[in-house]
Amino acid sequence: MEKILVEELVQFKMLPFDLYNENGEKLVAAGEILTSGKLLQLSQYDTLFKITPQTPPVQQTSAPTQPTPVQKTEFEQQKESSELIAKAPKEIVFDRTVNKKSKFRAQSQVDMKTYYATTMFALKENANKDAVQMVDEIKDKILDDVQGVISDVKFCSQLKLLGNYQDCHALNTSILATAMGFKLEYDEDVIEKLATSALLHDIGTTRLPKELLEKINLSQQDTKIFQTHTQIGYKILKYEMGLPEEICLVALEHHENNDGSGYPFKLSGEQISPLSRVVGLCSFFDDLTSNRTPHKVKNTKEALRIMLEVGSKKFFPELLYKFVNMFNYNDLESYDEMMQQ
C-alpha cells in the first residue's frame, strides 16, 4: 500500500491501480476512467492509497480470494464535458464542518455539501437541461443515505448537516422532506419529487446579490428583493431546466402560508400544491434550527415548540402534526455542541 496525492492522479486518464481511503475502503477500481468530477470527489480526502489489482486488500489475513467488489464512490460519475466542475475547486471554499451526532458518516456529510456547492456554482453559470443530471446525482445520494439510516434515527438533529448556511440549507430541507416521505410511506415517485424539489426550492437566490444573501436582518427594500427569488426560481426550473410543473411550483410557493399570509401570491389552503406544503414546512424548520429567523433556538425541541405555536396559520395541521411526531420530541441536543470542525 502506497500513499498518493490527488495532484498525481491527473496524469492518468484510466486508473492503473485500485484507490483506497485511510479506512481501507475502495474508492475507485483499476480500469475506471478518471473524470474531472471524480477527481473533485477524491480531492476531499486527506489521504489516499494505491494498490495494484494483484495486491491483497488491506488487512486481509486469509488466503487470497476473488477481488473485493468495486465500491461506488459517494456520487455517480459527473459529466466529463463539464468545464465548470473541472475549475470548481479553484472557485469554491469547501465546508468540512460535520455533525458528530449525525447518523450520516462524516465523509458523506462533507461530500454532500461539496457536491451541492459545486452544482450550484455550475447552475449559476448555466442552468440548462444538462444541469438536471447533476441535481439527479445529489438527489439519488440523499435518497440512498436517508433510506439507509432512517430506521436508526431517534432524533431529528441526527439528520442535520451543520456549517455554512448556504451550503447546508437546501440539503437539509431535502433530507427532511425525504425522511418525511419514508416515515409516512409516500409512493417512491413522490419521495423522489420531494427530494428534487427541496434541493432546488431556493435556486432563485443564485440570481440575487451575494451580499444580500449574507445578511441576517433585511431592510424593507432588501426583503422586497429577496422575495423575488420565488418567481426567479420558478422561471429557472421551468424555462431553463425544463423540469415538471409540480417541481417548479415548489420554488414558487414554498413561502406561501396556510392562512394566505405568505408570498408571492398569498395563496392559502388547497391552493398551495402538495409538494410545496411539505417543502415549505421542512425549509422553515431548517431556518429555525439554523437561527435564520427572529426566533432563536438552541435545539430541536425549542424549534418544534415554535412551529406548534405558529401552527395552522403557516402550516397544514395534519402535516405539522406528522412532522412533529416523526422523531422523539424531546430532542435536546445543542447544535453548537454537535458541531465539529
What report would you give on this structure?
With 341 residues, this protein is mainly alpha-helical. It folds into two domains: 1-73, no CATH class; 83-340, Hypothetical protein af1432, CATH 1.10.3210. Helix content is 48%, strand content 5%. A four-stranded antiparallel beta sheet has the order 1-4-2-3, with no helix packed on it. It has a two-stranded antiparallel ribbon with strand order 5-6. Helix 3 crosses helix 4 (106-125) and helix 7 packs across helix 12 (274-289). The longest helix is centred in the middle third of the chain and has 20 residues, at 106-125. The model is unreliable at 54-89 (pLDDT under 50).
CATH class of the largest domain: Mainly Alpha
CATH fold topology of the largest domain: Hypothetical protein af1432
Quote the beta fraction: under 5%
Number of domains: 2
Helix/strand-derived class?
mainly alpha
Shape: globular
Report the strand count: 6
Average pLDDT number: 84
Order of strands side by side in the largest beta sheet? Answer: 1-4-2-3
The CATH homologous superfamily of the largest domain is called Hypothetical protein af1432
SSE topology sketch:
Layout lengths: L1 E2 L2 H4 L8 E4 L4 E3 L7 H7 L5 E4 L31 H9 L6 E2 L6 H20 L5 H19 L15 H19 L4 H13 L9 H4 L6 H8 L1 H12 L4 H9 L20 H16 L10 H11 L6 H8 L10 H4 E2 L1
Antiparallel strand pairs: 1-4, 2-3, 2-4, 5-6
Helix pairs in contact: 2-3, 3-4, 4-5, 4-6, 5-6, 5-7, 6-7, 6-12, 7-11, 7-12, 10-11, 11-12
Structural key phrases:
single chain, four-stranded antiparallel beta sheet, two-stranded antiparallel ribbon, 2 domains, mainly alpha, 341 residues, Hypothetical protein af1432
